[in-house]
Write a structure and sequence with these properties.
about 750 residues, alpha+beta, Jelly Rolls, Rhopdopsin 7-helix transmembrane proteins, 5 domains, five-stranded mixed beta sheet, 14 helices, elongated
Length: about 750
């Protein structure tokens, strides 16, 4: 063995050995500091658990060596990971991070330990270098990471003989997700860990679950029953919009309770956002429905306070939808709650001043609701009560958290109960008022019965007289009806005779032309025969000249025959169209019918008015087949429409002063989708829009007195629609012209 002095002398004489010694001392000091200076000494664990919010080390990076107990983390940053993400903006990224803490448990604490964990990411928990649990989907590929909130799940910590624990957390946040809270109860912590005595923690958990969830189910049951009750009342009497507002408010409140219950039980951070965000939006609407109800019952019109409340809660819902790692919605919710109570208290005071029945009930309900809000605010912000595995099993400052919870939950149903009681009082008052009204109505009924009896006595005396008057008036009315029918028949007959006259004029003109030719060529033939006779009496006969005259004579006879046949065909055609009068359907050629009646109508008008002149033409489809119609009736329709067209263009011609107008009437036929379409088109005066719908009414006419009966278009419409299952429509532009369109279905000729 060497003395201290000898060792010192040896080191002084050898500088290299001296340097090695200094390095060893420094290394030992560093290791000692790195391993023991951060060691958390735990001498006791309260029943409410020991929150691990100090002695944590934090590092951004990834290496599994970080999980080993002997790793030197002295250069890592200090952090309190139990804070919410809103206050730890430096960690709001998707890089992998590590947390480390070392703690020494006193050997006297001879009970199993558990770690209650809640966080907003995915994690791997290492104890003394070994992986003991994994939450969420942890992956080095950030796109595959799924955040998982254990919601204070207890993890068993295997006991160490030395009592020293080295806890390391490998942690990563899920990218591109949002976080939210509701009522400040769902925390988005970075990493919240609490040590518990597992021997008592499980009992406390059961106690908490039974109490807390029992209140949840109780409140939900009350809200749901009230919702069903008022919904049934509203469906029974839908005239009362108060029950609608109350039903919507209760429905929203019930839905919020359901979403809040499930939202606080959802481990997926991403899914929880959408669930609780929906609850936030429903909260906005329920407040609006509640305010609308109070305004309605206080007989107060919507004012600036109401619209400000609506705007505020829409802003609250919008901000809640955009929230990412912030808790501003909690502040907005608290301020909105205070603002809502101010508005409601103001309306209740107005109702009390007006002495409206039942408003004292609304005042009491608001008081208890406000008391519940105050209690829960105190518990969350000042007493630091929160949802933990052990529940609310401690008393702080002499205040039991169970009492606070009870007041809050009963305060949450105070307003719904108050509103229901108010509606019950209103219903009672309405019932009393109705009872009084019924009594008054009964009295009025008795008076009315007495008066009715007196009236019946008077009426019985007048019935005979009235019956006689009715008989006389009925007889007079029947006579009027018969007279009207006779007049109508006469008008219809006049219309038919007018059409017949027009048709006859046209026919006579059509026949007159070929007859004139027959007459002229007959006279010429007679002259030729006389010339031939004279030539034959001469001594010297000019055979060549006689041959030329015979040739001319033959040509004249052929022309006479041609024009005679033309007249015969005209008569034959008209006989075919008018030989029946019993309404028998026949197969006819629509093109032929339209062409003939167009010419007949024109010549008929020319026969009556020599100054009348117009261009007319046909555009007839070659693809048309024969169609089954009543020739007499349908011919009348065609003739009437063409006559109206010529009348319109002639009327416009008379009014025209420029001299540039050229009257024109066109009749077209076409085949379209198994239908025959007939159009009568003119460029006449047109039909004004205000009378266009009246032209098919009987006796309606725009012609001067004596020029029309007003039955032509009415009869035409009836013949086409009822007689031939077709349609008759009109298209017109005032000052431009009119088009009448007939549409007829096609039948097979074999039918």
């Amino acid at each position: 063995m060497y003395s201290i002095n000898e060792i010192t002398l040896y080191l002084i004489c050898d500088p290299n050995k001296m340097k090695q010694l200094v390095f060893i001392i420094c290394l030992f000091s560093t290791c000692l500091y790195g391993q023991t200076s951060r060691l958390l000494q735990i001498d006791s664990i309260p029943s409410s658990g020991l929150l691990l919010n100090t002695h944590w080390k934090y590092y951004v990076g990834d290496d599994l060596e970080f999980a080993k107990p002997n790793f030197n983390d002295s250069t890592w940053l200090d952090i309190d990971p139990t804070k919410e993400l809103a206050s730890l903006t430096e960690i709001m990224d998707s890089r992998i991070k590590w947390l480390r803490i070392n703690f020494q448990v006193d050997s006297k604490l001879d009970f199993p330990l558990g770690l209650a964990v809640t966080h907003a990411g995915a994690s791997e928990i290492y104890l003394n270098g070994k992986l003991i649990h994994e939450f969420g989907n942890f992956d080095t590929d950030i796109s595959k990471v799924t955040a998982y909130d254990p919601l204070y799940r207890l993890i068993y910590l295997p006991k160490d003989s030395t009592g020293q624990y080295h806890l390391a957390v490998r942690y990563v946040l899920q990218p591109n997700i949002r976080y939210t809270t509701i009522f400040g109860l769902t925390k988005n912590c970075f990493f919240h860990g609490t040590l518990y005595n597992l021997t008592t923690a499980s009992k406390d958990q059961i106690k908490f679950y039974i109490y807390h969830k029992g209140l949840d189910f109780f409140v939900f049951g009350v809200l749901f029953m009230l919702f069903i009750l008022h919904l049934a009342i509203y469906l029974y009497q839908r005239t009362n919009d108060l029950y609608l507002m109350l039903t919507l408010y209760l429905m929203g409140n019930t839905a919020i309770r359901i979403l809040k219950f499930f939202g606080q039980s959802i481990n997926s951070v991403e899914t929880r956002f959408y669930v609780l965000n929906t609850a936030n939006w429903l909260l906005s609407f329920t407040v609006i429905f509640l305010a609308s109800f109070y305004y309605r019952v206080s007989n107060k019109r919507f004012d600036i306070y109401y619209y400000a409340l609506v705007v505020y809660f829409f802003i609250y819902g919008f901000i809640s939808s955009l929230t990412y790692g912030l808790n501003i919605q909690n502040v907005l919710l608290l301020l909105g709650s205070i603002f809502s109570f101010i508005v409601l208290i103001r309306l209740v005071i107005m109702g009390l001043k007006k002495k409206i029945k039942g408003f004292i009930t609304l005042a009491i309900s608001i008081f208890f609701a406000l008391l519940g809000l105050i209690c829960i605010t105190i518990s969350m912000r000042f007493l630091n009560y929160g949802i933990t595995p052990t529940g609310y099993n401690i008393i702080k400052h002499g205040i039991s958290p169970y009492l606070i919870e009870t007041i809050f939950y009963f305060g949450s149903i105070a307003i719904p109960l108050g509103l229901s009681l108010f509606m019950g009082i209103q219903s009672k008052e309405t019932t009393i008022a109705l009872s009084k009204q019924l009594e008054e109505n009964e009295e009025l009924k008795n008076k009315a019965i007495h008066q009715e009896q007196e009236k019946q006595h008077l009426l019985s005396n007048q019935n005979v007289l009235l019956e006689k008057q009715v008989e006389e008036r009925t007889a007079a009315l029947n006579n009027s009806i018969e007279t009207l029918k006779s007049t109508q028949n006469q008008l219809i007959q006049s219309e038919k005779l007018a059409s017949l006259g027009e048709l006859t004029a046209g026919i006579s003109h059509e026949i007159q032309n070929p007859l004139n030719f027959v007459k002229n060529f007959s006279e010429l033939s007679i002259d030729l025969v006389k010339d031939i006779k004279v030539e034959l009496e001469k001594p010297q006969i000019d055979k060549e000249y006689i041959g030329e005259m015979f040739t001319d004579l033959i040509l004249n006879q052929e022309r006479i025959q041609q024009h005679g046949n033309r007249a015969s065909s005209i008569v034959k055609g008209m006989l075919e169209h008018s030989r029946t009068s019993k309404g028998k359907r026949e197969w006819i050629d629509i093109n032929q019918l339209a062409d003939e009646y167009l010419r007949l109508s024109y010549h008929g008008l020319r026969a009556r008015d020599k100054s009348f002149n117009a261009d007319y033409k046909t555009e007839l489809s070659d693809s048309l087949t024969k169609i089954q119609v009543i020739p007499e009736d349908f011919g009348r329709v065609i003739l009437n429409l063409i006559n109206n067209a010529f009348y319109a263009v002639n009327d416009r011609k008379k009014r025209d002063t420029s001299g540039s107008y050229k009257p024109k009437v066109t009749v077209t036929t076409q085949l379209n989708n198994k239908q025959i379409i007939i159009k009568v088109i003119d460029n006449g005066t047109g039909i004004p829009k205000e009378i266009r719908e009246k032209i098919f009414q009987p006796f309606f006419t725009t012609k001067p007195s004596g020029e029309g009966t007003g039955l032509g278009l009415s009869l035409s419409h009836e013949i086409v629609t009822k007689g031939h299952s077709g349609t008759l429509e009109v298209q017109s532009e005032e000052g431009e012209g009119t088009t009448f369109i007939i549409t007829l279905p096609i039948q097979n000729e074999t039918q």
